[in-house]
From TrEMBL:
Organism of provenance: Allonocardiopsis opalescens
Pfam families tied to this protein: GlnD_UR_UTase, GlnE
GO cellular component, as recorded: cytosol
Region (Adenylyl removase) residue spans: 1-504
Alphabetic keyword roster: ATP-binding, Ligase, Magnesium, Multifunctional enzyme, Nucleotide-binding, Nucleotidyltransferase, Transferase
Glutamate-ammonia ligase adenylyltransferase repeated domain mapped to chain residues: 85-333, 606-840
Phylogenetic lineage: Bacteria, Bacillati, Actinomycetota, Actinomycetes, Streptosporangiales
Entry function: Involved in the regulation of glutamine synthetase GlnA, a key enzyme in the process to assimilate ammonia. When cellular nitrogen levels are high, the C-terminal adenylyl transferase (AT) inactivates GlnA by covalent transfer of an adenylyl group from ATP to specific tyrosine residue of GlnA, thus reducing its activity. Conversely, when nitrogen levels are low, the N-terminal adenylyl removase (AR) activates GlnA by removing the adenylyl group by phosphorolysis, increasing its activity.
Identification of the protein by name: Bifunctional glutamine synthetase adenylyltransferase/adenylyl-removing enzyme
Length: 1004
């Protein structure tokens, strides 16, 4: 290493050898180790640059291309202000370095008092118009007249060079602290507006005479409209046009306007010797990219009145005329602004906003969220989304909030008391930091990006170092910057969650604060916009939970700002908050409850979602509130095996002397297990097959325990004269129970040898009656209805039959529907030996040796058709009834059962009780096409999920998808759909495919 390189290394240059060569090439003299040296000031300025090596390389490139090389070098040595600005730009932006090398004379834009001054928007507009040869002397409110005699030979390249000349001056002031991030963003927006005006002038000259037929206004949207643009960002616009005065043909005028708009966009975007400015994006126009590029004002107004979605009004928050006909632009704003401030009153406002937010988060590429400065957690979009939503909610009545810019709107929200002063200051600081980082990312290569470099690579570390140094970090700048960024991101996320909710507590509970609080009316407006259907009721719940000086109220005031956000995001915000109040009232004095919610965020978040997903789980939790403790552990939410439940049930029965007390304990066990399954289902930890298996296991254990209690009570210490077995039927036998399913059963007994048959029959009947009585006792849990109507002769036949009676009946009277019903018969409880004998008895009926004959097939088909026509509830939509409707559960199950009746005699795998297993066996045996089986299984699972979710939401069973939009939306959200319409569309499509298969396979 040379002596010069050694000195440079000690001065902080990483590539010291190359730096020494460049110093020699430029002609700069390095300072001595013990003296100031003639070029010490230049070296110090290089050391201060974000990337000293890049600044030195850029200076060498510029000097090589500059015709006034000696003047430039002398100026760098002598002029401290020029030196600081030039080297700051060269060290931060290779993109602007490239511009300087193409236009080396532009370094003079960084010298003198003018380089420190922020220009006015009109001044920038005039300069860019002059660059393309357009008339810049006209009133800025009027479109500039094209001067074909003055248009440059290549006005597009001239415009781009002039634009970047202005960016160069702005970046120099930005990087040396002469312009803050808000001023930088505003100047960039004004510069973009001026460029669009100049592009329109070029387009008018290209179009010639037809350009005079129309009036065209360019409306800036997004960051351009709000005057908060980035260095490199899409410029969002909307075009509005009208025929010029005296134009006879409106359609010809609109065609001219469209050509004019397209040409102006092309001027900004097309490739050339000078890099394109930015993308001009007109996708925010009505109907998006599918809609016409240009519309009249009346067409815009009609669209927004009738068709616009909520997000389109949110986009209009930032609309501003930026170029073209200023009068027409002002008319556009006047026509549409009132609609913006009524958007929060739309019925689907909350669902639309939440769905849009989920789409934005889902759009982040996998693995990129933690480096996404814009869309990631704690990013710019979190701030903008929160501020815009508060504006839409409260700006209806408070015009001071109608500021398009994020920082201005945040200041207004703070001044109005909608956001706390400290919170607003913290959020503003975080937003300014994030925008500054965004600017530094884009300045580097003058490219659009929001990705923070990956610190795991050498290039990424160097880029992080550059950003850190530009932000003022000197010790380990890459690590210091990363730590500061993460801190701001965490603060943004925290404040994003807090912004909506803390003032609600102040309004409801009058929490002491040094900041203005929301009025009750403003608090109700915010709650309504967040999705609470009864905002006044929600305020009462908040007040009840947080008022007072107790420790309980203090902890609730800590919990609720975050939990209210989770309730608002849940399917039913009102139900969730009500349930939380009820559970808190039941457990509020229990020390572990609030401590658990406070210290275990996962428990609190899951509890909010669970309570906001309907009445079923909420009611179970209210009856067993200590079950909240299992919410934080996925393992604890896993359904327990039937054998483990049986062991616990056995212990419960041994603890209690009387049947009534014992059955109470048994039902408490069932209640807790139902909650476990419902919670796991709601959180998506188990699928519909596992739900059916778990509910069937719980029911079997409950019936077995109740049978033992009933037997004990009836016999009262006497020996039993008979054996007794419970046979599960229907969905219970298939291990496919739903939350609201009855337990379909048949009771079988068999007198012991030598016992009196009359006494045995009376004992068996008494046991069955006592079992049903015990399970029907009033209790705070979902009822378990034991239905024995599938027994021989139905309700008219005896409740309990002997095995011999069943044999005689089936030999003589059995019909095809009974054979079909027996397909799902399975022993559930009682004497195992008797159960095995019963199973052996029914085997020839449900799996006939030669299948079923044509008469039986016709009878089964007639029964199915009759059921469809007679059993469907009056007024029910067959397309939405998940059990008996077209493509519903019944369709799929009857297909599976017909295949079993026809072929199980020769395909043993078909001899099961479960629907999907039968379909799979049929595919394996070549009896059913695999695609058909998948369509049937998809419909069966979806119908089962919907039926289960209906019970979870309502707290009671139901088979039809509700048509009420509010209840349907809650149901859809529980099932994971964005909207009620999406659920219905998916179900109709899935059921329609299954129905087509059913008609072909079942009816032939």
């Amino acid at each position: 290493m040379t002596t010069a390189a050694g000195r440079l290394a000690r001065l902080g240059f990483v590539a010291a050898d190359q730096a020494a060569e460049l110093f020699a090439e430029i002609g700069l003299r390095l300072p001595d180790d013990d003296g100031p040296g003639p070029d010490r000031a230049v070296v110090e300025a290089l050391r201060e640059a974000a990337d000293p090596e890049a600044a030195l390389t850029g200076l060498a490139r510029l000097l090589e291309r500059a015709p006034d090389r000696e003047e430039l070098l002398a100026a760098v040595r002598a002029d401290a202000e020029l030196r600081g600005r030039l080297l700051a730009v060269l060290g931060a932006s290779t993109g602007l370095t490239d511009h300087l090398c193409r236009h080396p004379g532009d370094w003079r834009r960084l010298r003198g008092p003018e380089a420190e001054r922020a220009p006015e928007a009109a001044e920038v507009r005039a300069e860019l118009l002059r660059a393309v040869g357009a008339d810049d002397s006209a009133d800025p409110a009027e479109p500039p007249a094209a001067r074909p005699d003055r248009i440059e030979a290549d006005p597009v390249m001239a415009l781009r060079a002039a634009y970047r000349r202005r960016v160069l001056g702005l970046a120099a002031r930005d990087l040396t602290g002469l312009a803050d991030v808000k001023r930088v963003a505003a100047e960039l927006a004004d510069l973009a507006a001026a460029a669009l005006e100049a592009a329109l002038a070029v387009a008018r000259a290209e179009l010639g005479d037809p350009a005079r037929w129309c009036r065209l206004a360019v409306i800036g949207m997004g960051k351009c409209g709000a005057r908060e643009l980035n260095y490199v960002s899409d410029v969002d616009v909307v075009f509005v046009a009208e025929p010029a005065e005296g134009a006879d043909d409106e359609q010809a005028a609109l065609r001219a306007a469209e050509r004019l708009a397209a040409a102006a966009m092309r001027v900004c975007m097309q490739a050339g010797e000078e890099a394109a400015l930015w993308q001009v994006d007109a996708a925010l126009r009505p109907e998006g990219r599918n809609g016409p590029l240009v519309r009249t004002l009346a067409s815009h107004t009609a669209y927004y009145r009738r068709w616009a979605q909520t997000w389109e009004f949110q986009a209009l928050l930032k609309a501003r005329p930026v170029a073209g006909d200023a009068e027409l632009g002002a008319a556009y704003l006047a026509a549409l602004a009132p609609m913006v401030w009524r958007a929060a009153e739309r019925e689907n406002f909350v669902a639309d906003v939440q769905a849009m937010r989920r789409r934005v988060e889902a759009s982040i590429p996998a693995g990129a969220a933690d480096r996404q400065l814009k869309l990631g957690p704690g990013g710019l979009r979190d701030v903008e989304f929160a501020v815009q939503l508060l504006q839409l909610v409260h700006g209806r009545t408070d015009e001071s909030l109608r500021a398009p810019g994020t920082l201005d709107a945040l200041d207004a929200l703070s001044a109005g008391g909608y956001v706390g002063r400290d919170d607003a200051a913290d959020l503003s600081a975080a937003y300014r930091f994030l925008r500054r980082v965004e600017h530094l990312l884009q300045l580097h290569r003058m490219r659009r990006t929001h990705m923070v470099p990956d610190g795991g690579t050498p290039d990424g570390r160097r880029e992080l170092r550059r950003i850190g140094r530009a932000l003022g970090h000197r010790t380990h700048p890459e690590d210091s910057f990363t730590a500061e960024w993460r801190r701001h991101a965490r603060e943004v996320r925290r404040l994003h969650e807090k912004l909506f909710y803390r003032p609600l507590l102040q309004a409801a509970a009058r929490v002491p604060s040094d900041q203005a609080g929301l009025s009750p009316e403003a608090a109700e407006a915010r709650l309504s916009a967040l999705g609470f259907g009864d905002p006044a009721g929600a305020l009462r719940h908040i007040q009840a939970l947080t008022t007072g000086v107790s420790r309980r109220a203090a902890i609730q005031r800590t919990l609720l700002p975050v939990m209210l956000g989770w309730f608002a995001a849940a399917p039913d915000a009102d139900g969730g908050l009500l349930g939380f109040r009820q559970v808190s009232d039941a457990l509020g004095s229990t020390p572990w409850y609030l401590r658990l919610l406070r210290d275990e965020a996962g428990v609190a978040e899951r509890m909010a979602w669970l309570l906001g997903s309907g009445r079923y789980a909420t009611d179970l939790l209210l009856r067993a509130p200590d079950a909240v403790a299992i919410l934080g552990d996925d393992a604890a939410l896993a359904p327990r095996p039937q054998q483990a439940l049986a062991v616990e049930a056995d212990a419960v029965l041994r603890r209690h002397a009387t049947a009534e007390f014992a059955v109470t304990g048994l039902r408490a066990l069932r209640r807790r297990e139902l909650f476990r399954v419902a919670a796991a289902d709601i959180f998506g930890l188990i699928d519909v097959d596992q739900v059916g298996e778990a509910l069937s296991a719980i029911t079997a254990v409950t019936l077995d325990g109740a049978l033992r209690l009933a037997t004990r009570a009836v016999l009262d210490g006497r020996p039993s004269p008979t054996r007794f077995t419970i046979v599960a039927m229907g969905r219970f036998g298939g291990r496919e129970l739903g939350y609201a399913s009855d337990a379909d059963v048949m009771f079988v007994h068999d007198p012991l040898p030598g016992a009196d048959e009359g006494e045995a029959a009376r004992t068996a009947h008494a046991i069955a009656v006592e079992l049903r009585r015990l399970l029907a006792l009033p209790a705070p849990d979902p009822a378990l209805h034991v239905d024995a109507d599938l027994r021989p002769e139905g309700r008219q036949g005896p409740l309990v039959r002997t095995l011999a009676s069943y044999r005689a009946y089936y030999r003589r009277w059995s019909s095809p529907w009974e054979s079909q019903a027996l397909l799902r018969a399975a022993v559930a409880a009682g004497d195992a030996g008797l159960g095995a004998r019963f199973t052996e008895l029914i085997e020839p009926l449900r799996h006939p040796e030669h299948g079923i004959d044509d008469a039986a097939l016709r009878e089964i088909r007639r029964l199915k058709a009759r059921m469809e026509s007679e059993r469907l509830p009056r007024g029910a939509d067959p397309g939405l009834h998940t059990k008996l409707g077209r493509g519903g559960l019944s369709d799929v199950e009857w297909v599976a059962q017909l295949l079993q009746l026809q072929h199980a005699h020769r395909v043993p795998a078909l001899r099961g009780t479960r629907t999907l297993e039968a379909l799979a066996a049929a595919v394996n045996a070549g009896l059913l096409d695999g695609g058909d089986a998948r369509r049937l299984a998809a419909a069966w699972r979806l119908a089962g999920r919907i039926r289960g979710a209906i019970t979870l939401v309502r707290g009671k069973g139901g088979d039809s998808i509700p048509t009420d939009i509010r209840e349907g939306t809650v149901l859809a959200r529980v099932l994971g759909y964005d909207s009620h319409g999406a659920l219905i569309e998916d179900y109709r499509r899935t059921a329609r495919r299954a129905r087509a298969v059913m008609e072909r396979v079942f009816y032939g």
